[in-house]
Design goal:
By secondary structure, the protein is of the alpha+beta class. Helices cover 42% and strands 23% of the residues.
Length: 235
């Protein structure tokens, strides 16, 4: 089970560390910003090794000008301890050394000694609860068009997708055959967004799945047929 452990520092603020199979991963963009990189994405690409970069669903909180906070599920890039060190040693900020001491001399030793530090969150539960709240608001307007996935609009041209084999496991592959067939039909038709398909799945079985998981499944198991010139929606 993946866990998110949140650390507090008076100078660097709040930092969430993701634990995957006992290994620590740090939020890539946030760490790059703390270390003074003006273009975090470029810094991560240039200084971090790809095998030490992972992507994981997370929850983003945004507060508008009226003080109302909303949340949404996003895909966050995390980097390994080695990649974090690579960013630190290439940083030009004087505070980079202080950040290094905090992470490597305080956070990681405590984490590995006691198995916990700061505030612990079951990230998958947080994501599931967020998704449930969002789905309850939008389900009615998204699901009606997905009740009959084989039904095609008379006015909108279709773009088909060809299916190919892939060995990577997916939540969709664990669905009951009848439901999985409907999901495959929805993807192949090109009529439904990944969010619509995800909501259709959650409305028909007791399983949470994000639109990003649907998109990954689509990219792993389908390819676009260029013989059809209409646009296939991708998220």
């Amino acid at each position: 089970m993946n866990e998110l452990k949140v650390f507090q520092n008076s100078e660097f603020g709040e930092l969430g560390v993701l634990i995957i199979d006992g290994k620590e991963f740090f939020p890539a963009s946030q760490c790059a910003k703390i270390l003074g990189y003006t273009n975090p994405r470029d810094a991560i690409k240039r200084h971090c090794k790809s095998e030490g970069v992972v992507k994981h669903d997370g929850v983003s909180y945004t507060t508008n000008q009226y003080g109302v906070t909303s949340q949404q599920i996003i895909e966050i890039k995390y980097i390994s301890e080695g990649n974090l060190y690579r960013l630190i040693i290439r940083s030009k900020l004087p505070s980079a050394e202080k950040f290094e001491r905090w992470v490597f001399d305080e956070v990681l030793p405590e984490l590995r000694k006691n198995g916990s530090y700061g505030n612990n969150f079951n990230l998958e539960e947080v994501i599931a609860k967020t998704a449930t709240a969002v789905v309850s608001e939008v389900l009615k307007q998204l699901i009606p068009t997905a009740d009959n996935p084989t039904e095609q609009s008379q006015n909108v041209p279709k773009r088909k997708a060809k299916k190919y084999k892939h060995t990577q496991p997916s939540k969709i592959e664990t669905l009951k055959p009848e439901l999985k067939t409907k999901v495959d039909d929805m993807i192949a038709s090109g009529e439904f967004s990944c969010q619509q398909i995800a909501n259709f799945i959650m409305n028909n079985c007791d399983m949470y799945i994000s639109q990003m998981s649907v998109n990954r499944y689509k990219r792993m198991h389908f390819i676009v047929d260029d013989n059809f010139d209409s646009q296939l929606t991708m998220f």
